[in-house]
Amino acid sequence: MLVAFLGLINSFSEIFDSSRYDKSVNPISTTKTDNSALWESTPLSDWGFILVEGPDSEQFLQNQLTNSVIGLESAKGSQVAHGSAQVRLVGYCSPKGRLLASAWLLLQVNTAGGEEIKRYGLLISRDIAASTAKRLSMYVLRSKLTVKDVSDSWEVEGHLIRDAKTPYLGNPDEISLQLPSVTVDENIFERIISARPKQPHLNTHKQSKNLELWNDLEVLSGIPRIVMATQEQFVPQMINFESVAGIDFKKGCYPGQEIVARSQYRGAIKRRLHLARLLDHDLDTVAYAPGTEVFQSQDPNQPAGMVVLSAKNPFAPSRIDLQIEIKLEALENGDIHLGSIDGPVLKIDSLPYPLIEI
Q1: Are 237 and 269 contacting, i.e. CB atoms less than 8 angstroms apart?
Q2: Pick from 171, 223, 224, 221: nearest CA to 196
Q3: How many Å apart are CA 77 and CA 200, to the nearest integer?
């Protein structure tokens, strides 16, 4: 087992082709082959899937999401979508610039009657998939497209491998994309997430252990995911969305765009996402789910931020890893308490990527 997992993140291997990052190109093949015995899989019951399909789907999504959709490429043949040309992190904001949802976006191109049909997939938190699809549908009007939450009929799975270059074997009927890898104490974890029409699951015990690791690696990646408890709580920059390539400031209008742009270019960003951990505590007595507030010891009368994502560390029964959104001034001195001013003290860890400052 990975005893070294108790250490801090040392680096972040970024698969996106973006000049914003000091890139570490993922060396594994993303072509589906029959050599995937080392990949471990788990159902992701907290994830849902939305399909947007039709001739006007590209422009429609371009006008709704924080990141550019125009120019997104479809993975060829049996390849797993990867890199900024084929995978985008996107946000969906309210008119006030607050994130209603975040998702991983990919494109699948099908041919029918000699014509190409674009179908976009949004991998999103399951508890907000239906409401997000419904809200998007309100703006379809006369556009030629459909928006469907298929979370009940499709299953989402996560696939993991550590320190290997073994290609991933997928299923013919699945749609899959490669997420940024996560490096923990020199161990590189590759991650692929896929969706396909529902099939019988694998061994439950293996899935449970793999799920714990998947969830913890998602937290340690520093890439946020909006869930129901955190809807409309954050302007994208408050959870580092621009620093993980989730915003294209040149793409044009979308709901909340003026507020998001103003936050970036007019004044300093005063709240940010940080990694934190809770050690050596009775976890049965602690609330640490997304939406849980955090407090600073020298300002006990109001919360300093809240939990964005959290997960138990699978190799340390008394450790919780967290993403927290917090006032930057609260980190300058004093302790950060989880849940209440009398709650356990969090240890703040370094982010695995640099923050973009304008």
Answers
A1: yes
A2: 171
A3: 25
Residue 349's region, left for phi above 0, alpha for psi from -120 to 50, else beta, is: beta
Into how many domains does the chain fold? Answer: 2
CA-based torsion, 163, 166, 172, 176: positive or negative: positive
Give the N- to C-terminal CA distance of the chain in Å, as an integer.
42
In a shared domain, residues 157 and 117: yes
Tally the C-alpha atoms within 13 A of residue 59's C-alpha that lie toward its C-beta: 7
- The pLDDT of 272-278, averaged and rounded, is 97
Domain range enclosing 275: 270-349
> What are the CA-CA distances from residue 155 to residues 2, 49, 221, 314 (Å)?
28, 8, 23, 23
> What does the pLDDT average to over 224-245?
97
Q: Which residue has the tokens 């001739």?
A: 55
Beta pairing partners, 43: 157
In a shared domain, residues 255 and 309: no
Give the pLDDT confidence score for residue 37 in this predicted structure.
53
Task: Report yes or no: 305 and 325 within 8 Å, Cβ to Cβ.
Answer: yes
Please give the Cα distance from 171 to 159 (Å, whole number). 12
Per-residue confidence band for 117, with pLDDT thresholds at 50, 70 and 90 = confident
Tokens coding 54: 């039709």
CA angle (276, 281, 284) in 5-degree steps:
105
What pLDDT does residue 15 have? 37
Q: What is the pLDDT of residues 49-66, one digit of tens each?
A: 999 999 999 999 999 999
Model confidence pLDDT, tens digit, residues 132-163: 999 999 999 999 999 999 999 999 999 999 87
